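Budget justification, computational time. The allocation requested in the original proposal was used primarily to generate structure tokens for proteins on the priority list. As evidence of use, we reproduce two of the resulting records. The first is shown immediately below.
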Amino acid sequence: MIIPSLDFIQGKIVRLYKGNYLKKTQYQESYFLYIENCIKNNIKNLHIVDLDGARDPKRKQLHLLQDILKNKNINFQVGGGIRTEKDIEKLFFLGAKRVVLSSIIFKKKNVVKNWIERYGQERIVLALDIKIKNSFKEVVVAGWRNYTGICIEDIIDDFLENNIKYILCTDVSQDGTLNGPNLLLYSELIKKYPSIYFQASGGVSSINDIINLKKTGVKNIIIGKAFLEKKFTFFEAIQCLKK
């Protein structure tokens, strides 16, 4: 499945370069028109990231999210600064289909496990964003500024007993670069964890990247910058997956 992504800072659509808040590109595109275009092209899911909330949970863009989530013709998964059950309940109330959890996984792991049990595997996505050094896939959090010292495999192993289904994995070194996805990373993860519906994120720049990701067996492909910069259309991306 193709999942377009929109990241927001102060209500504006942006893309960061390798997760660096100081290296952002701002787009003038209307998110309302972008979402309408998704719907017209039969896009089923849209990934929304509140980058202000990711950096500081007290600065969540709730008015923006409320405006976006009122559209009931598409499924939204929302991430950025989700730390409490109140945060989750608020987003579900506003209309989110799924919530994306990251930093809280490492602060309150057992709480997150309880949320998976309570809300179900269809409604929780674990975002495991990694920086790779000497083959060690270290997860980073808090807007990709803080290193956890934990590898992605250890986290997945821990949550398998809770029947986690969706994991969004981003290779930070590829994110926002248009240099192509880390195919080896997804091939390895999917081979080791065939039951997980991985969402591949970072680096997609061409239809050929989609073809190569499909070959790895990845279930979902998140695409941000390539769509915003018109590298290809929603229709072309969907047709590519169908073929």
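The second record produced under the same allocation is shown here.
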Amino acid sequence: MKNHFNAQRFGQLFRKHSAEYLNQYLLSTGVLIGVMMLIMGFIAYISGPPLNARMQDIFFMLFLFGAGFIFTSTIFSNLGNKNQAIAALSLPASHFEKYLVGWVYSFIIFLIVFTASFYLVTALVVSLDEWYGQEKEILNVFSPDQQGLKTYIIYAFIHAVAIWGAIFFTKIQFIKTAFLFFLGLGIMAVLNFQILKTLFTQDLKMAMPFADVFLQADKEMYSLELPQQQQQLIILVPIILAFFFWTTAYVRIKEKQI
């Protein structure tokens, strides 16, 4: 269609998608809450120290990245079924509108629902945990230190890769996308380590991409880090990569409709 976006047409398409998949999404939300409650509750029960904000932050990242990747990689699963794909691609809506519905659900709505669900589970676990007279802590993902913002930015990159795989592959999208994702991370980590190893004369112990470099010299461990201003610029890398994968995913869905 020549008109890429029409608000009324997009609204109708969004309502249609919601009516068809709302029960499935609600059930998935219930499963997510149950899994988080089970894991966080079990860790809080068997561990001595209470589930403090630092541990909550770790759980927040792991659950967000894992659940987000799984959900996003299945958001366009109907394109992998021939009959469903024909019905979906023949809807009277533009390429961009169909792509935008999946993007809004898997990115914006998912982030809102996940954050609310995580806080619900965290509040319940913290209230039931034994703090031994300490002040109870609940993670603030919107704190001024912007750590929560960085987590959301990293998720944007993970989401972009997952939605690209959901559109690019027609079968077992999650497995194929996850395999390529971790393979790419592994290759990048090895190349990064080997390149830095040739640059430093000292014994290089650890060097992850976009992170501090750890060296050993005269039996002493040293860490090298970028200046604060350059560290802030590094956060642009996942943002740029996210827009790249989002764009290529949109181009791919256009090809499926030609």
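A brief technical remark on that second record: The chain has a mean pLDDT of 82.
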